[in-house]
Amino acid sequence: MPADPDRVITAARAWLGTPYHDQASLKAIGCDCLGLARGVWRDVVGTEPFLIPPYSRDWGETGPREVLAEGAAAVMIAIPPANAPPGALVLFRMERRAIAKHVGILTGPATFVHACERLGVIEQALTPAWHRRIAYAFQFPAI
């Protein structure tokens, strides 16, 4: 059973303005896109289910495994990306042959929250350019 999407969206928006900091997850102090998702998990679901090992910032990284998607699938509810509703966590493939490495949380039918290197945590339009990069979608589980 998925978590209440309004609760997920409220939790994600509470991170707005948090500065960008690679591999961090501290609201109002610093986070990257995965750190944002981890913080929303803690706010909505509870304790994180496993430690996140260090990871590269290379959005063009290729490989045989979708590590981020596999990790999310182990603890979240996988849904078709085309049907992802507000409150869903989406994984973006930033380059055609690369693995999915960017994370956002949908806040409306055409908006999402994510962490950007220069801007920190922001809410912005899910433009066609962003939408076509969605590779996976998940819902947070209810506690």
Report on this model:
The protein is of the alpha+beta class and 143 residues long. The chain is 24% helix and 25% strand. The protein is built from four helices and eight strands, in the order H-E-E-H-H-E-E-E-E-E-H-E. The protein has helices at 5-13, 33-44, 67-75, 128-131, and strands spanning 25-26, 30-31, 77-79, 89-92, 102-108, 111-116, 120-125, 134-139. The strands form two sheets. Strands 3-8-4-5-6-7 form a six-stranded antiparallel sheet. Strands 1-2 form a two-stranded antiparallel ribbon. Helix 1 packs across helix 2 (33-44). The longest helix is centred in the N-terminal third of the chain and has 12 residues, at 33-44. The protein starts with a helix and ends with a strand.
Helices and strands in order:
Layout: H1 5-13, E1 25-26, E2 30-31, H2 33-44, H3 67-75, E3 77-79, E4 89-92, E5 102-108, E6 111-116, E7 120-125, H4 128-131, E8 134-139
Antiparallel strand pairs: 1-2, 3-8, 4-5, 4-8, 5-6, 6-7
Helix pairs in contact: 1-2
The rounded distance between the terminal residues' Cα atoms is 9 Å
- Number of helices in the DSSP assignment: 4
Strand order of the largest sheet: 3-8-4-5-6-7
Structural class designation: alpha+beta
SS strand fraction: 25-35%
Number of strands: 8
Percent helix: 10-25%
Radius of gyration: 14 Å
The average pLDDT is 94
Low-pLDDT stretches: none
The SSE order reads HEEHHEEEEEHE
Largest sheet: 6 strands, antiparallel
